[in-house]
Amino acid sequence: MQSSAKRKQFIQTKLDKEQSVQVSDLAQELGVSEMTIRRDLSDLERIGVLKRTHGGAVKDVSRSYEPPFNLRQHASLEQKRLIAHKAVSYVCEGDTIAIDSGTTTIELAKCLVAFKNLTIVTPSIHIAMIFLDHPTITVLLSGGVLRKHEGSLVGSVSRATFSTLYFDTFFVSAAALSEDAGLTDYIIEDATIKRMVMGHAKKTVALMHAEKFGQAAFAQVAQLHELDVLVTDKPPYPALQHELQRQKVTTIIAQAKEN
Fold this sequence. Notes:
Blueprint: H1 4-18, E1 20-22, H2 23-30, H3 34-46, E2 50-53, E3 56-59, H4 69-72, H5 77-87, E4 96-99, H6 103-112, E5 119-122, H7 125-130, E6 138-141, E7 145-147, E8 152-154, H8 156-163, E9 167-172, E10 176-178, E11 182-185, H9 188-199, E12 201-207, E13 219-222, E14 229-232, H10 238-246, E15 250-253
Parallel strand pairs: 4-5, 4-9, 5-6, 9-12, 12-14, 14-15
Antiparallel strand pairs: 1-3, 2-3, 7-8, 10-11, 11-13
């Protein structure tokens, strides 16, 4: 039997694709009882992911709703790792880089452990912990108010830290990407800090798996032309791909090698 977190992530992914789910179908697909599925749906309804209906549920999410970290961290993990391995090509020994908080950027940080000489600034406690025992990489946490369960730092102290620092590259993650809204995020405080860091970086590399394409979250981080590179796991849909090309954003597709 899958863990509760993995079942709930499966349900969320199915809702993203199909907009509705049925208890009986989920029970069969996941190999659990319908009572277990009903409990999962009730838990997800309490945190605002969906709305229960007779025999199932429908997607009902605000643009400012951020899925819990413990659900996101296991979702699309293989794709996130592929994206991270491609994004590493934009890092050189001696660089000073900013790494955004997020589950995909955590995978990038794990790849950077192999480097010897980097200066990394991040608002993510999860990312800082990866380098806790690294002998030569310098890590600066931004400071700020801790977003509990998310493990990231926001607020005036975080903004003040980033306002005085400049970077070779900023690796940014966000909630959604579309040709109309650009790069968007759930929380306006996060979006404000991301925009500031982009303005202080020579290059901005967005890390985003394709499930986030064609959507818009609450707060705009950047218009497409403000990005330099997009690293993703699948080619964007035609309208988004056309606009990325028009705005001269380099798109890198990270895919597993065929045997």
